[in-house]
């Protein structure tokens, strides 16, 4: 009796990782594997002479090595305009098949090429930033497996202006306020600077600077014509800088709208607003302030406020208290800011009234009494019937 591998290689050792032992189940030789490895796969045959005849039995050993990704960072940062490889090294047996998606789509075009250790990208740009998924598929006759690794690719680049069309201009009137917004994309994060002419601006009496990671806002209190003109926003990081000119243009203050109040209910009211015509910048909407008359002593700084877009008509104030007197005022809103407010208007919400008691209640009571009387009559009738039956039986 003997064991062979792949028809020729005889296994004779009685020790080692692969060896033979006397079978504990009866006469025969047991083939023993200790710590199976991928290289152990193959065809194993047991041959024996029984009554002068050779007999044999075989089995195929399939060794599956599960998919395993090499340890690599799941967030990768590369510099713009370089050729890079997004790493995805996979081990397994059977050898896994690999496919990629970039931001949910299959990578297409000559700039993408799948290589042994990942996905090669030529001349990376900001458009290549995003989520890369490396999917490994393992297929065999007895088992299939799939494993996914997600890699976030960040692109290092100098600041790039992100403002929408029209952000290069801003409008204001004397005594008004202008918010100049400068927003960029950048990696690493940028540093911002504001200038007017050659003068660097700091937060001071007539200007306040608000800083965020990728945006800065210069708030200008327009007290004279000197406030108008070109402002320069500078954004810089280790890879470069960007400059954007934002022009503050003088316009007229928006005109006061016409306002009336109607349709007051217990919890809401409709405000009719007629905006000014022939405005330089057009009307974007309206700001409505309101408060309870009993709270007028607190001033309009304590008022509730709703901002309506022009297209939202009709303009409804909701969530009001019932049976309460309110005071309301309205201002026009356009790209330069807000107009003065209209004259105050008063209105009162309705009182909620309970439904009156009607004769139908008495009718219901009457029906209830009749039903009760009917039940009593039925009960008495049943007692009489039972009594009669007892007498008959006796």
Automatic annotation (TrEMBL):
PROSITE patterns: FN3 (PS50853), IG_LIKE (PS50835). Keywords: Immunoglobulin domain, Repeat. Residues 253-352 form the Fibronectin type-III domain. InterPro entries: Cell_Adh-Cytoskel_Orgn, FN3_dom, FN3_sf, Ig-like_dom, Ig-like_dom_sf, Ig-like_fold, Ig_I-set, Ig_sub. Gene3D superfamilies: Immunoglobulins (2.60.40.10). CDD domains: FN3, Ig. One of its GO terms (molecular function) is axon guidance receptor activity. The keyword Electron transport does not apply. The keyword Repeat applies. One of its GO terms (cellular component) is axon. Residues 1-56, 66-152, 159-247 form the Ig-like domain. One of its GO terms (biological process) is homophilic cell adhesion via plasma membrane adhesion molecules. It comes from the Eukaryota. This is Neural cell adhesion molecule 1-B. It comes from Zootermopsis nevadensis.
